[in-house]
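User: I'm writing a short report section on ligand binding and want a predicted complex to refer to. Could you take this sequence and zinc ion and write out the structure as tokens? A short remark afterwards would be nice.
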Amino acid sequence: MSDEPLVLGIETSCDETGVGIVRGQTLLVDTVASSVDEHARFGGVVPEVASRAHLEAMVPTIERACRDAGVQLRDLDAISVTSGPGLAGALLVGVASAKALALALGKPLYGVNHLASHVAVDIVEHGPLPEPTMAMLVSGGHSSLLLVPDVTNDVRSLGSTMDDAAGEAFDKVARVLGLPFPGGPHVDRAARDGNRIAIDFPRGLTTGRDMERHRFDFSFSGLKTAVARWVETRHRAGESVPVADVAASFQEAVVDVLTRKALLACKEHDVDHLLIGGGVAANSRLRALAEERCAKAGVTLRVPRPGLCTDNGAMVAALGAQMVSKGRAPSDLGLPTDSSMPVTLVQA
Ligand code: KG4
Ligand code: ZN
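Assistant: Sure. The structure tokens for the complex follow:
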């Protein structure tokens, strides 16, 4: 038997029912049931649809995870669960399930922060996290720059989006271009055939006083509006829209700002490791530009594989295992959900 803690993690903050099992720093299984197809026709995640899908998927997903990992529930050392931030009803399904498991099995329960979990997951992919690590989380729900001295209890927010999250901007621009939801992968694909300097779209919060006041914050709503106006002007003039060029130029504006601010944060805080997580970390141009700029700055880039960048249970199990290993006290069984849990609160 191993001394390393065996932890089952549950993630239900948005539309993915994720159950992962980790032993110490080793991922045993990552099982995800997604309701994304049920939301596609609405062009965005419908909270009530997501909650019901979690309810239906929860028990089969836990059973499948245990079966695939060859793990008996009684062998677990702890249960961890996303207690926030996220959709209130969706979180409730995960937290109630985790409490039921913890109570029935007599195991400790850890209610953890979704964003810290996005950072911790890279431990099962690339080993222990350097302390401190700079982390940039970019997804449909969040865009944050975090200084992480210790992922189990010290996560500091340097900045975040003032309006749309990066993935949200991708999804909205995709809609303007007539591409399906979720739009990020479609924009990424369309952009491959486009010219990224064809259109000079705005880079929000990067100049003058904006940059002074919002050094590490992001804003993508002006960019999204600029793209919509540009496309509309072409439509009005009866001209066709060069989808590949618009996609490539929009994408360049997003990833230019993201990588510029992330590397500035590394420089100013004297951190030599940058971790990028969240669904948008799957973006091919973001990965390429981040690699290029990190290499130039002498910063080591860590990006988990795409399946671990999007929402999953492994990330929650990975953080739970760190909590146990570092001897952190478990959460109370009365643990509430917190849909707007601040990123600085690692554990509820
Ligand atoms: O982390 P995630 O699965 O869910 C949360 O929002 O928490 O991220 C989903 C977001 C969507 O907005 C999707 O369009 C975006 O990530 N995304 C991408 C790519 N793949 C997924 N954005 C840009 N390029 C991609 N290749
Ligand atoms: Zn997420």
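A remark for your report: The mean pLDDT is 96. The radius of gyration is 20 Å.
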